[in-house]
């Protein structure tokens, strides 16, 4: 039985995406970045797929369904992720299952990435390209998927509810630009805006708007100062008299009226 399994593994064809990487991608990256050694070329190290199951604390069927679906998608039995500490606001205790995750390497990793690029991603509704800003500045890329139904291995009638999953692709690249070129050469459909190493048009437009707003505010402040110099009386602050001063003025006015009445009577 073991010999038969070993022969089946030996007879399995190598992943086509890995062959594409070895035959074309390595030369393309070497020509672009000028690597002196083939081992300097960045490559895929591992792919981590995780699925959150927050409702598993109420029923175990949710955890079992998520585990089965992730196993079908990845081709490998996932591990249960448990809470490390208790959080009262989320009604979570330490040790409760909060998700399932699987780490793929080798042939399974290449096959999963191949299925993700060629089959799963094209089935996303209203797809407009992957976000090229999702790199972590260390050559790793994270992708969020809202529905597990984009994978053809999942039957629509067999699922209990729609769940999302996160895919993290870890590479050996030392920069986001190298990792981006690696994934782009492998076939990842990135959008045109916001690519690493290129000018970000949105950031430039935002900076231009801020500069225009700053210059407009300075011009308005200068115009106000000029108006104050030309007509200082219109912009002078009116000082309201204090209560004591008003009382003294009133007293003086009262004295004046009494003196006037006395003069009239004398006449």
Describe the structure.
The protein is α+β, with helices and mostly antiparallel strands. Helices cover about 50% and strands about 10% of the residues. The protein contains 8 helices and 5 strands. A 5-stranded antiparallel beta sheet has the order 2-3-1-5-4. Helix 2 crosses helix 5. The radius of gyration is 37 Å and the shape is extended.
In short:
Helix content is about 50%, strand content about 10%.
- Taken in chain order, the helices and strands follow as HHEHEEHEEHHHH
Classify the oligomer.
single chain
**Mean pLDDT reading:** 82
Strand order of the largest sheet: 2-3-1-5-4
Kindly state the percentage of residues in helix: 40-55%
- The DSSP helix count reads 8
Q: Report the end-to-end length measured between terminal Cα atoms.
A: 143 Å
* Residue windows where pLDDT falls under 50 for at least 5 positions: 247-257
Shape: extended
Structural class: alpha+beta
Radius of gyration: 37 Å
- Beta content comes to 5-15%
Observed structural traits:
267 residues, alpha+beta, five-stranded antiparallel β-sheet
Secondary structure: elements and pairs:
Blueprint: H1 2-11, H2 16-33, E1 44-52, H3 60-74, E2 79-82, E3 97-104, H4 106-120, E4 141-145, E5 165-171, H5 176-186, H6 201-230, H7 232-235, H8 243-266
Antiparallel strand pairs: 1-3, 1-5, 2-3, 4-5
